[in-house]
Amino acid sequence: MKLIKSIIKPFKLEDVKDALSEIGVEGMTVLEAKGFGRQKGHTEIYRGSEYTIDFLPKVVIEIVVADELCDKVIDTVVKAAKTEKIGDGKIFVLPVEQAVRIRTGEQGEEAL
Amino acid sequence: MKTLPSIKVGLAFFLFLALNAIGFAQNNETDDSAAATVAATSENEDSGSSDVEEKTDDLSPGNTAWMITATALVLFMTLPGLALFYGGLVQSKNVLSVLMHCFAIACLASIIWVAVGYSLALTPGGLGDDARGWIGGKSSFFLEGLGEDSMKDDFPESVWITFQMTFAIITPALVVGAFVERMKFSAVMLFSALWLIVVYCPVCYWVWGGGWLGDAGVIDFAGGIVVHATAGASALTLAWMLKPRQGFPNNLKPPHNPGMVMTGAAMLWVGWFGFNAGSAGAANGDAGMAMLVTHLSAATASLVWMFIEWKKTGKAGLVGIVTGTIAGLATITPASGAVGPMGAIVIGACAGLVCYFACGFVKEKLGVDDSLDVAAVHGVGGIMGTLLVSYLGQTGILGGQGISQHGENGPYFTWSEQLSVQAQGCLAAIALSVVATFVIVKLVSVLTNGIRISEDDETKGLDQVEHGENGYTLN
After folding, report:
1. B404-415 confidence digits (pLDDT tens)
2. What domains can be seen in chain A, in order of their start residue?
3. Is the N or the C terminus of chain A less surrounded, counting Cβ atoms within 10 Å?
4. A43 Cβ under 8 Å from any chain B Cβ
5. ipTM for the complex?
6. Which residues pair with A53 in a beta bridge?
């Protein structure tokens, strides 16, 4: 099993969710985050004073899938989240040791 | 340890009240002076004469109704206008503390006002003959002798007391802007209480209560000197003594809720109709004109600030435009009884222009963290308006209604004569504000073991640390 962690621009969340739905991925966890990479922050001005805002709002989508689905999920997220501008985000893949469905106690891939 | 400051503050407050009550009970005023005080709290705000006469005017329902309404409008300026205006400008972790400061000061100032403030600020007598030009008397301490039938000109004295109370409430509340995000609540309470008595009441007496400035012909229709200059000068002094917030000047956080700032500013604008037009003391042409000029100054200053910001930064901001509004309102305040509509537009333009650059001056050149620009907006604005009225208030100048006169119906002051007394008034108010603030802060520092919170607490935020609450519990 793999944990696929996608950091994307917030307004792309609906597109990514819909695209994942189409390939059969129905569950996910979404976190609101802030961060930056090469996309720098910006400056706001109030009453003549400048305020530099380094962090930009981002959304993190976490999905755990069976190994075979991993590449397909990555392609889907990339296609749905891309705007071809700096700040589109990144995807990280981590191995998952165990998964458990709390309601039934199922473990492993059956829990996904 | 956390409860100690509140005990000290509470004890100080009750001790103060008790001492005054005892002192008052021991000095029995004669019936004559009590009656004279109740009947004779009259002065002419814009001409400065202070005749102590027996007034037995019939009650004017129109004036009474308007003054009651104006009182509500001015209270609305503090609760919640100013609270929201200031609240939106700070970081979210401190918003509750700012709302608390405004609210608690409003309550505290109310009690102090009826205990000693009104008497010292607006009734004649002096605490002894030598003090007659400098401070009011004690015959209205605890509003002794006030009844339903007591009159101030042709409306009830109870209304007058309450109307003036709302001014005594908002003035210390204005100073809050200087010390947000870093001052202990106990220190805020102690400072505000002492400041009201030692700074506001004397200056109020000097200008409006029959004191030496009013006598000299100073024009301060609704509080350019009494409210804005005192608050501004004191704010600057206090901010300087407190030292800046973490992150000043280059790493500050922007206002957490510009919408709240605008809401507050809008309430201040509307309420200011009560502040200025109510200072006419009647439902008449003076009030009507005061309202009109107030509005025009606000609108003009807002636009001027907006255009300056647009030109300098490329964008027209909301926080900027509403700051311009407040600058315009503060600047017209002393002049609202004397200038005409076109004069008000000139005043508004000056306000937007000068206060914009004053903000930068205080932060960058003086290096003082007057966090919400009390000195740059209220102080500079109030003083500027007080000086500008010398010229723009003259009859024949852009619709001016007339400045001070020599004697009851004598010749008008020349604009330079007027400017001279206006400047005297400003300087006197500033001097008292600065010196008294300095002394009060030193005293309060001792009582509260330092008026500033610790670095750690400043990082955590006052809402949690001083008030045990969260401004926003989302989820």
Report:
1. 999 888 999 999
2. 2-111 (3.30.70.120)
3. C
4. no
5. 0.71
6. A42
